[in-house]
Amino acid sequence: MPDPAPAAAHAEPQPKPLRGAAPGSPLRGRVRMPGDKSISHRALMFGALAVGTTRIGGLLEGEDVLRTAAAMRALGASVERAGPGAWEVAGRGIGGLAEPADVLDMGNSGTAARLLAGLLAGHPLFAVMTGDASLRKRPMRRVTEPLAATGARFWSREGGRLPLAVQGAAEPLPLDYTLPVASAQVKSACLLAGLCARGTTRVTEPEPTRDHTENMLRHFGAVVRVEDTPAGRVAEVEGQPELAAAPVSVPGDPSSAAFLVVAALLVPGSRLTVEGVGLNPLRTGLFATLREMGADLAVENERTEGGEPVGDLVASHSALRGVEVPPDRAPSMIDEYPILAVAAAAAEGETRMLGLRELRVKESDRLAATAALLAANGVHAAAGEDELAVRGTGGAVPGGGAVVTHMDHRIAMSALVMGLAARAPVSVDDASFIETSFPGFAALVNGTAGGGAIGPA
Ligand SMILES: O=C(O)C1=C[C@@H](OP(=O)(O)O)[C@@H](O)[C@H](O)C1
Ligand SMILES: C=C(OP(=O)(O)O)C(=O)O
């Protein structure tokens, strides 16, 4: 079955303006989310490193993950699509990746680029990575600095930006690294390089971040130890294991579910069930925060699938109130602040979100872009260096704004959701980047809202 093709490398993006119509109809019924993006990237990468054929179900077929699929092929793995969400990866074994013949284009995906840097560092090959205009602005030194201690060498543009050339280490050394910022991507890059090294690689994180790498490495047979110490959470992997191909069932993405959940909370008359959502506690900070704000948000049918907790979320229209979101919660909801800000805009009173410095280096400067999204729609928002304060309107927000999305899928979806619950429609300059993480987003929202909720601007 042919792959859904990612946009051609270096093609000029075609902006796709859209509009979230107001007032929206209630969101009702049952929906399923696309597969988890973090887990999908890892399933393809670990499949490429394993011996045997890894069968993946529920893979996210968004542009970011298709970039990872293409990169794994370019590195010599066989990656085939067997049906919708069903993929098979025949791996090359640890240390077995081949030198790619051409530049690897990671599109809009920070996760793909940073995890791949770890994989490449441990293989004795030369490779060059690039990405789109958003990814080429994002910091890569956070991975190249620790990875250089393996013996790998890196050359990049000024400030450590892509394009990035890598000469991997012939005999990579194990790492012992303490993360200066909470980042699952940096942790994972170090652990991936450590797979190729002899001995134990150790990563200490000041605050726990998503642990999909650790969970999936165990699932493929690696020895991984995780321990909480006074210095933080320590993850260790034993190098040069034989990873054995293992089936992976990818849960629905909680970061995608976030948009549907907030839409249902804000649009009067809504009651929506979002089925099969991954509920790893290192991903669910938004849902805890929404409950503190008074959200009627239940979990049904809790179960474990593919080593990850999964459940059905039931969200009903609710009156929300402002809260303070502590900085130590940020790693468990790092991608959810733009949509939380939309919920906060409709809440009674002020919401303060702390510890947001990392938002400045996502697909856009999300702190600035989120504040601008709210301001364009008549909501008062104050962005500090590391925090955002939103003055809630206590009901439907004015809306009517034209939101600049800066190549950022989460800004685009947040703005369109705001439009569903605003007094006047909200438009975005470009919804095309939604394809990176949530293909079919507008059609799915329209399906639950009786059609026409999101349409051409
Ligand atoms: O490891 C991952 O899959 C991710 C980690 C987070 O990035 P950081 O590691 O930069 O915090 C998150 O923002 C990103 O969407 C996915
Ligand atoms: C930050 C994100 O992804 P990435 O870092 O992989 O581009 C995201 O999806 O919100």
UniProtKB/TrEMBL annotation:
All residue ranges annotated as the Enolpyruvate transferase domain in the record: 23-442
Cellular localization per UniProt: Cytoplasm
Reaction catalysis annotation: 3-phosphoshikimate + phosphoenolpyruvate = 5-O-(1-carboxyvinyl)-3-phosphoshikimate + phosphate
Main location: cytoplasm
Annotated binding of 3-phosphoshikimate, by residue: 37-38, 42, 183, 185, 335, 362
Record's function text: Catalyzes the transfer of the enolpyruvyl moiety of phosphoenolpyruvate (PEP) to the 5-hydroxyl of shikimate-3-phosphate (S3P) to produce enolpyruvyl shikimate-3-phosphate and inorganic phosphate.
Subunit-level organization: Monomer.
Name this protein carries in UniProt: 3-phosphoshikimate 1-carboxyvinyltransferase
Organism, as annotated: Craurococcus roseus
